Amino acid sequence: MGYDIERFVGYVNEGLLCCICQDVLENPLQAPCEHAFCSTCIHGWLVHHHICPEDRQSLDVSVLWPLFRYMKNDLNQLQIQCRNREHGCNMVCSLESIELHEWTCINMELFPLSSHGAHITCEFCNFELSKLKSFFLDTTQYFHLY
Ligand SMILES: [Zn+2]
Ligand SMILES: [Zn+2]
Ligand SMILES: [Zn+2]
Which residues form the RING-type domain (predicted)? Predict the structure, then answer.
């Protein structure tokens, strides 16, 4: 399965979508007919089919190759939101670096400061800040939780 297109900021070229799951390509592979798929999607498909799901030309796992370099570059540059957005992480970065971010972000726990007695407000707008603690990095960040 690819990356949910809802997580991307800005325009995503149709050519960077998987023909099977319709999400943004994850570990993409390309067929000789130039259709592109997530690695897991096309491998799952080819277990029971021997054609391209898009144009029905014959297709075998041995002829799949990595995505063209220019498409791969486009893909890597897409801006994606952190999967922990609903838990308060506002990180947006390139697809290329999101995995590294999420790996550290997964270990974070968010809690309102007031529940721990402390009370810190934003120096710019006086909004009460929340505290984000990363157990993995042993760092603490403060930010707005709306
Ligand atoms: Zn897919
Ligand atoms: Zn095709
Ligand atoms: Zn995050």
Answer: 18-56
